[in-house]
Amino acid sequence: MIIRVLIIDDSLFMRTIIKDILSRDPEIQVVGTAANGEEGLEKIKELKPDVITLDIEMPKMNGLEVLKQKSALKLQPKTLMLSSLTSTGAAMTQKAMNLGADDFMLKPKDPAAVREIGQELLSKIKNIVKISYVKKKVTVTTGPAENLVVIGSSAGGPPMLDIVISSFKTELPAAILITQHMPVGGFTAALAQRLNRISTMPVKETENGDILNTGNIYITKAGFHSVISKIITGSGKKGGKIVHSLAPPVHSVRPAVDKTFISAAEIFGPRTVSTILSGMGNDGGEGTLAIKQHGGVTMVCREQDCLVYGMARSALDRNCVDMVVPLTGIADEISRAINKIAGA
């Protein structure tokens, strides 16, 4: 299947760069470009694309207005918003998701760096044409989780999260806590909102004091480390709650995967399963080691499925990884490990 893409952006430079990136992939055909929302709507009717990439701030008609008017069209192409790395961009992104955008991507502040996100852009476009929305959630067991899955990712991670989270078809006897490096201001809330559409289990951004409940998925709020503190469940076992910390960044990031993983190991011990997806740098290596030392199960995604392999390699270099898993098999391996732990 060839994916037909329409690019809507008021910047000639951005249209040119995006078209060049997409045109290099044989699975994608750029059917046209538009310089503003009004022109974009007309070209949606004329060209019938499968996907549109949509800038938010444009003259004549901005991206939010396009989304409002697109909903009345017979053709409903999937929509990838291109958001600037600003607080305004984050607020607009959340509004766009509320209006039915299918996904979003962060544009670098430096236009010359746009080519650096080319591979992720291609992944996003290919993912949104495949991902279907969940109309009915599973029945979630209430109460604090006695088992925990922790997932860490950075650059290239969001498209991988789509695949992992949408692959869970039933409730897990565990809570899932995802730490994804993102800028502050609302982008992690938009990510949680998006993942909630494709997940059988409910997904939310963390709030300070959240109890980690069975069958729920949590996205660490950007700007805070999500540290897990101990609670005692009704059956007398250890559970956890989220404490947002403004402690200094670790590996130059906050939230840091290591902060979450290490606290998970201390509270949940052998009832922890960890996974590292794509990401640059060393974040996650020490945390994976801590989970292994406390008797938990550790895995990383295989290198050919990752945009960047620094985080996974940091764990592998510490000889603390139980499994290296293809992206499409991660959900099954997590389920298998957690069900084994829960039945122990």
Would you write up a description of this structure?
This protein is of the alpha/beta class and 344 residues long. It folds into 2 domains: 3-130, Response regulator (Rossmann fold, 3-Layer(aba) Sandwich), CATH 3.40.50; 148-343, Rossmann fold (3-Layer(aba) Sandwich). 35% of the residues lie in helices and 22% in strands. It has 11 helices and 14 strands. The chain has helices at 12-23, 37-47, 63-70, 87-98, 118-130, 157-166, 187-198, 257-268, 285-293, 310-316, 330-343; strands at residues 3-8, 28-34, 51-55, 78-84, 103-107, 148-153, 175-180, 203-205, 217-219, 225-232, 238-245, 272-276, 297-301, 323-325. It has a 7-stranded parallel beta sheet, with helices on both faces. It has a 5-stranded parallel beta sheet with strand order 2-1-3-4-5, sandwiched between helices. Strands 10-11 form a two-stranded antiparallel ribbon. Helix 4 links the parallel strand 4 (78-84) and strand 5. Helix 2 packs parallel to helix 3 (63-70) and helix 4 (87-98) runs parallel beside helix 7. The longest helix has 14 residues, at 330-343. The radius of gyration is 20 Å and the shape is elongated.
